[in-house]
Design brief:
It contains one helix and 43 strands. The protein is mainly beta. The protein is elongated, with a radius of gyration of 31 Å.
Length: about 525
């Protein structure tokens, strides 16, 4: 007869419909928590094990196969201190286990970690509670054998009765662990209240984490906080307790942040208080962890396969320069969505990298982030290149784009065609001043070509762009500066154009008239 394993039953029935964590057993603190008695639940919720999804050995996805039924490597083990007959072995970097706990009171604790390692492996670990790091990284002691364990003593850990879960996190693998003994040692007021870390909470909010439960009525005032975004001050307009942890609070700013930004936060007041009455120590220019969603930036290149959503497309390996994958097997009506951020108000052109044995046709549409249609860009025909992996670049006009966050939709109108990437190239900015003092284009008007005169040394690398008044790109060249170099305009029709020169990150633009 097979033994009943409630972890198996939980995984087979409850977790299919309820992907949350439930306690394996009741863990009371002060007291002993056995490492093998972590919560029941899915990977990434109750535990994380780096090999838990490797179903095709080697390596085996579970090296222990004892006591529990998931990815954590539990093995039978007898120890003379606080043993339940098991330990967690084969601990890898980034593994973690979560324990639902009942903490009797706010207190300072010493944690005795029962652990071992066969040599100086560099393995180290830390504890966190409800997303806040409670301890520094501690290195596992070398006990000389995987079968010998010893206590690693971690002092001055502040726990709160409001902490509901504790995680043991392996910052670097290479040790075994059997148990954690939590011993209350005194009042939290005996330790300083300190800043721990901070992280983006939303596009306008920063969550600041401290080491102690806070007095939610004394979170400081706006003037005591100084926040910068890329070195520029952003005003704090609200301070509120965090819904995530009693140690944390939320600063709301008067402007949006993006994934590209670097934020720093400082505090210089005395009014931010812990629940035990101690004041949180001031902190200066602490870097905020930026977890805001990553999007594609315009101007810039977007790999076609880096979509957020699609319908009807397939991927294949490409023989184009740079390798990777391209989208293919397209049919009329297929589409792809991309999350984008337009950095500058300007006209833009688009380079399309494509391959096919027949002509294709596509069109971009622009939506706001809630999915409301805004506008479309001109259709572009992608001519046959003679082969499905014979790659050419075709340029098209994107028109004027306004700074902001959008959803970009690529509609396939005529197929089949393969696409590797597309690149948005900025033309003249809507607020860009003509740089006649730094750039001269002559003769002007021009007929078959023009020359450049500027403050560049002979041989300096330049990028040249020529746009018509609608923003369509007609000429794109990378060259080295020479005062006698002629840039041909024979293919341009009579009309007004803008010549943009980029050198060392600076842009210069001048008007040009073409007459034939």
């Amino acid at each position: 007869m097979r033994a009943y394993n409630r972890g198996v039953i939980d995984a087979m029935f409850r977790q299919i419909y309820d992907p949350t964590a439930l306690p394996w057993k009741e863990h009371n603190i002060p007291g002993v928590v056995h490492a093998s008695e972590y919560d029941m639940g899915p990977l990434g919720v109750a535990y994380y094990d780096t090999e838990s999804m490797q179903l095709n050995p080697p390596p085996a996805w579970n090296s222990g196969w004892t006591y529990r039924n998931d990815g954590v490597d539990v093995q039978a083990f007898s120890d003379f201190v606080n043993s339940n007959g098991y330990c967690v072995g084969w601990v890898d970097t980034d593994d973690w286990m979560q324990y639902t706990v009942d903490i009797a009171q706010d207190s300072v604790y010493t944690i005795k970690v029962r652990q071992g390692a066969n040599g100086a492996t560099g393995g180290n670990f830390y504890f966190e509670a409800d997303g806040v790091k409670l301890t520094p990284n501690y290195y596992a002691s070398n006990t000389g054998s995987w079968s010998i364990l010893a206590d690693k003593v971690i002092p001055n850990v502040i726990l709160s009765s409001e902490d509901k879960t504790i995680r043991f996190v392996s910052n670097s693998g290479g040790f075994n662990v059997a148990s954690f003994e939590f011993i209350a040692t005194g009042s939290t007021a005996s330790l300083d209240a300190e800043y721990v870390s901070s992280v983006t909470h939303s596009y306008t909010e920063i969550e600041v984490k401290t080491n102690k439960p806070l007095d939610t009525t004394q979170l400081g005032n706006f003037a005591s906080y100084y926040v910068t975004i890329n070195g520029n001050q952003a005003s704090v307009v609200n301070i509120a307790p965090s819904p995530n942890n009693v140690r944390n609070f939320i600063l709301t700013l008067n402007q949006n942040m993006t994934f590209l930004d670097e934020m720093k936060v400082s505090y210089s007041g005395t009014a931010l208080k812990a629940k035990d009455g101690t004041s949180v120590d001031p902190f200066t220019q602490e870097l905020v962890e930026n977890t805001l969603p990553t999007v594609h930036v315009i101007p810039g290149k977007i790999e076609a396969e880096a979509y957020s959503s699609m319908d009807g497309i397939s991927l294949e390996n490409t023989s184009d320069i740079g390798g990777g994958q391209n989208i293919g097997y397209l049919d009329g009506g297929d589409y792809l969505l991309y999350d984008i951020k337009v950095l500058n108000n300007a006209t833009y052109s688009i380079d399309y990298r494509h391959a096919s044995q027949s002509n294709g046709k596509i069109q971009f549409e622009l939506y706001d982030t809630s999915g409301t249609y805004l506008s479309n860009m001109p259709e572009v025909t992608l001519p046959s290149t003679g082969g499905w992996q014979t790659w050419n670049t075709t340029s098209g006009n994107a028109g004027v784009l306004t700074q902001g966050d959008y959803i970009l939709k690529l509609n396939v109108i005529q197929a089949p065609v393969n696409i590797n990437w597309f690149e948005f190239i900025q033309g003249i900015g809507l607020e860009e001043e003509l740089a006649s003092d730094h750039l001269m284009v002559y003769p002007n008007p021009a007929q078959d070509g023009f020359k450049l005169s500027g403050m560049w040394a002979e041989g300096a690398p330049l990028e040249i762009y020529v746009y018509d008044e609608s923003g369509r790109l007609w000429i794109k060249e990378s060259l080295t500066y020479a005062s006698d170099r002629v840039i041909s305009t024979k293919e341009l029709s009579t009309g007004r154009y803008l010549v943009t020169v980029i050198s060392s990150g600076r842009r210069y633009t001048e008007k040009l008239m073409i007459v034939h």
